[in-house]
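Hello again, I could really use a second opinion on something today. I've been staring at a protein lately and its backbone has me curious. You're getting the sequence in one-letter code plus the fold written as tokens. I'd be grateful if you could look everything over and explain what you see. No rush at all, and the record is pasted right below:
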Amino acid sequence: MKSIKEEINLNNKKILLRLDLNVPLDGNKITDTTRIDKILPTLKFLISQNSKIIIISHVGRPKGKVVDELSLKPICKDLEIKLSQSIKLVSKNVNEITSKDLFHSDNEKIVMLENIRFCPEEEKNNQQFAKHLATLADIYVNDAFSCSHRAHASIHEITNFLPSYSGLQLSLEVDALKKITSEIKKPITCIIGGSKITTKINIIKNLIPKFDNIIIVGGMANNIIKYMGNNIGKSLQEENSDSIIEEIFSLSQTEKCKIIYPEDIVVGKNLNGVPQIKELNEILSDEMILDIGPKTINSINNIIDESSTILWNGPAGYFENPNFANGSIKIAKKIIENNKSNKIYSVAGGGDTVSLLNSLNAIKDFNFISTAGGAFLEYLEGQELPGIKALN
């Protein structure tokens, strides 16, 4: 990929900039601005180069129809404040916009098109739609890694009609993921959580040959605890996961990768229950596993101390309730401690992990935080992302 920083002359050039500004909205209020904050460096760079910027993004899933609640208006206002720049939101149907509708004076530097997914052609990767978008600009920049697993018109087909570059954030994201999948500094450890082992099996299988340790926590670990002959009571579990677990353990032995799962756990009678530390063979039928226990935390911390690279995707328990957040918080603090002393390269991703780190005000204490969900996971599975392929 060529970064936009490699383009020599951006002065007065019109830049079609694809961003992912799909932030959570409560009415007109943005409840988490992480995605907006991450793309500010690209916007500031383009402003410094005296470019004219045409922002494209989406919010939610309007399915090709205009949905007023999914307008980019509140995001436009937030960006105006953060950049100290006026930004014009062009609410006209994208199919009807011409370059004359965009910049009316030299003082106008940034315009934003309304939610690109209001147009059904976007998700269909429609060639004519992409060609039309290309008539609005001189250069295309993709700074939306989190959308790059989608073959959509403003991500994929557009690159056939304009000189195309990666934005600063997209380049950082790909570089960070390369460091944990191909340019590896060993020993390397993956801490992987989440509720379903079937959704992460391809990631685990892809990482086992490359990683030294894979630590399985959260709801996924319940299946392993049960597979090892323990009662897991009312805990979250998947049916028919034994063959997947056998496959993971068999591959890990062949590839000499250690699989670590909880030694002890914290249970409650329900999600709001009183926490109780237990051994794996002590779980009662009316109890739920909701966090990892102190012995497990200690073991994970020792592995982190021995690691040079860490990938973390998925919390260790039901962290939304502070009674069951201890495991996730202790893991975060240990990674941060080692990060601050430059002992480790750390990458974290996934919505719940980012929420946890946000609640600890620890986003800046990791080498890289990915706000991408599907794209992050598909990259780790070894899949080729359409948006990245189009830029190559």
Notes: The longest strand covers residues 14-19.
